[in-house]
Amino acid sequence: MKNITGLGQVLILITVFVVSRFIAMLLGIQLDLRALSSYWQYLDIETLRHHLLSGVWFDHAQPPLFNIFLGTILKIGGSHYVLFFEIFLKLISLYNALLLFSIVKKLSSVYFLPMLVALVYILSPATIIFETELFYTCFVSFFLLLSVFFLIRLTESGGWLNAFGIFLPLVFLCLTRSVYHIVWLFVIAASLIFYFRRRSVLNKLIIASLISIVLVGTWYVKNKFLFDRLTTSTWVGMNMARNVFHDNEIKDSSRIEAYEPFSRISVYRKFLDPQFENKFKGLNDRDLLQEMKNDSFINETEVSYIPVSELYQKASIDFIRHNPGAYAKNVFQSSILFFTPGTLYSLALENAGKIKYYDLLYSFNLTVFSKNKQERRILLTISALPKLILYLFIFFIFIRICLKSRSIMPWNLFIIITLGYVFGISSFFEHYENMRFRFETEPLFLILAAQIFSRLISRFQIRRRTPIGDLIA
User: Of 37, 191, 311, 422, which sees the most CB atoms within 10 A?
Assistant: First the structure.
């Protein structure tokens, strides 16, 4: 292996990717186009095809970029749009692996580690499954990896390109995934500006970060102007309620929390002001006023979900205030779910079942043995242990190193802030999607872990080469 060049390793990675995906295709793992019609986050297909910009502009539920991506592929792909989606998603996944390889190669002194880390990502059952889901999961990883890549380059050589290379992917991320709030972007910007406060790149970072915050902020301002809500997603209350009221059934039908969040808008009519929708008539009736989209799926961009979500948020806060223990239990469950295999994500289960024994060996997914709900809960918790232990081990070693050296590299600062933020948000506001949140940030953890293992392996190699007499002395 020591004679394999960097190009040779890249060719090995590409070959492994192609062969593994061919095998996955033979096993029946392929793109599921039902997402295009049924996923709550997506606009009506008629809107995506023929009224894309108008539909995105009047969308209060989601940031705009992924719907723009969907509409663009539908427009340019013509009758071959399915092939376009498949190729694009596969290329994103492959490029993530190559970015990961390139980043670890810069940070590791151990020859085989960059290719090994990239193979861990390529051969992960979760990667194989999520790249066949028409969703933004792999895009999130891509934007995060790009920012880390340019942050390392900025540290090495400065430059405007590298400064904007850090922040433009974060702009795309915030305008793709509502979890990445402008507050997170501000914290990242402030942390990096403080870190580089005595470096020549400071002014470049300040300008790049200010432009990025303004670009993201415009979408918040747009929603404030159109819908009187300063947010990129008005679903916060409904998302929160799914976690707060999980395992806490409310039977009083006069209370909104008695109903499943994200139900049809007709379920909530008795809680709503019948005049609320009047001021939105004529703006974009297909997406703002219709209960269903694509004839048979719930239209979650209907404008009345704005007050519905606020009612859920108020009910959630009241419940937490009076039942903090019950909410703490759900947060704890969600935090455990964060470390479970990514293939346990509910919308990935069908494809994951086609490689369940590979998933069992690779991801320690013991739920394949469950026969009922109670067994599944127990095995799910046990399945989370390997990842949880690994994360704790890496963070323990990392903190020790930082305390001993009294320093932290800027890319590691970025990684720690992001991992902590995503873990906190997913635990407090989400339920049963947490493993997907972790998978999106998994490449960042792999970069951190690679640095730790590189350090440990290098120390072991030095000790092995040191004569016993020198060690005793």
Answer: 422
Beta bridge partners of 297: 293
Mean pLDDT of 418-434: 93
Would you state the pLDDT for residue 459? 80
Rg (CA), the chain: 24
How far is the C-alpha of 351 from the C-alpha of 25, rounded, in Å? 11
Q: List Cα–Cα distances, 39 to 44, 85, 268, in angstroms.
A: 10, 16, 20
Q: Is 440 helix (H, G, I), strand (E, B) or coil?
A: helix
163, 204 contact by CB (below 8 A): yes
What would the pLDDT profile of 162-185 be if each residue is shown by its tens digit?
A: 999 999 999 999 999 999 999 999
Query: From CA 82, how far away is CA 132, in angstroms rounded?
Result: 11
Cβ-proximal residues to 391 (8 Å cutoff; 6+ apart), any chain: 339, 445
Percent of the chain with pLDDT over 90: 87
Contact 232, 219 (CB under 8 A): yes
Closest C-alpha to 166, from 177, 154, 178: 154
DSSP state of 148: H
Specify the DSSP class assigned to residue 30.
Answer: -
> What's the one-letter identity of residue 298?
I
Structure tokens at 149: 């890549």
Q: Are 340 and 383 in contact (CB under 8 A)?
A: yes
- pTM for this structure? 0.94
Tell me the one-letter amino acid at 322.
Answer: H
Per DSSP, the residues of 326-359 read HHHHHHHHHHHHTTS-GGGSGGGHHHHGGGHHHH
In 3D space, the residue among 59, 44, 67 whose CA is nearest the CA of residue 226 turns out to be: 59
pLDDT, one tens digit per residue, over 371-415 is 888 898 899 999 999 999 999 999 999 999 999 999 999 999 999
Q: For residue 261, give Cα distances in angstroms to 33, 237, 430, 443.
A: 24, 9, 12, 32
Q: How far is CA 460 from CA 52, 310, 318, in A?
A: 57, 56, 55
- Grouping H, G, I as helix, E, B as strand and the rest as coil, residue 293 is strand
Place of tokens 């190009």: 7
Q: What is the DSSP string of 211-268?
A: HHHHHHHHHHHHHHHHHS--SS-TTHHHHHHHHHTTT-----TTSGGGS-TT--GGGG
Residue 285 has what pLDDT?
95
Strands 297-298 and 292-293: antiparallel
| Amino acid found at 460 | F
Report helix, strand or coil for 297: strand
What are the structural domain ranges in the chain?
Answer: 40-90+136-466
CA distances from 220 to 14, 60, 63, 425 (A): 40, 10, 9, 19
d(CA 99, CA 343) in angstroms, rounded, equals: 23
